[in-house]
Specification:
With 156 residues, this protein is of the alpha+beta class. It folds into 2 domains: 76 residues, Ubiquitin-like (UB roll) (Roll); 68 residues, DNA polymerase, domain 1 (Orthogonal Bundle), CATH 1.10.150. Helix content is 33%, strand content 16%. It is built from 5 helices and 5 strands, in the order E-E-H-E-E-E-H-H-H-H. It has a 5-stranded mixed β-sheet with strand order 2-1-5-3-4, with helices on both faces. Helix 2 packs across helix 5.
Length: 156
């Protein structure tokens, strides 16, 4: 049975009608129109759909939209301030950590949770934070460098 719920995404409130089994990923992409969050495996293995819920990195394909009501949700679209990229986004561009770009939103959202908790993480902490995000293009070196650069340059 469909239900009208409110979702707070990137500071804006959205009224959406959802089915009980609809994932947050599907609602973000198909009902709200925020397609920066990518759909990968739909099983929680690849991390491309990572968003922040209450500041914690979660796989939006595994969270029911109904479970996300009354929670603060952040997507990749909410990081930039107008035309000004978030320091993480800028570091990914500057360091060449964006290749095909498919994993990038999930990587950045996972890194954001880390930098919100630790302004100057170690390389090992960065690796742990992005461990659930798969990238098929790189050896992760530039991604790790970009996250480290964002923490150094901007203090998290």
């Amino acid at each position: 049975m469909k239900e009208l719920i409110q979702l707070k995404v990137n500071g804006e409130v959205y009224d959406v009608v959802v089915e009980p089994q609809e994932s947050l990923l599907d609602v973000l992409r198909n009902k709200i129109g925020l397609t920066g969050t990518k759909m990968g495996c739909k099983a929680g293995h690849c991390g491309t759909c990572t968003v922040l819920v209450e500041g914690k990195a979660i796989r939006s394909c595994l969270l029911l939209a109904m479970q996300a009501r009354n929670k603060d949700i952040s997507t990749i679209e909410g990081l930039a301030n107008g035309e000004n990229l978030h320091p993480l986004q800028l570091a990914f561009v500057e360091r060449g950590a964006v290749q095909c770009g498919f994993c990038t939103p999930g990587m950045i959202m996972s890194a954001k949770e880390l930098l919100d908790e630790r302004s100057e993480p170690t390389e090992e902490e960065i690796k742990v934070a992005i461990a659930g995000n798969l990238c098929r293009c790189t050896g992760y070196t530039k991604i790790i460098e970009a996250i480290h650069a964002a923490s150094q340059k901007h203090g998290g």
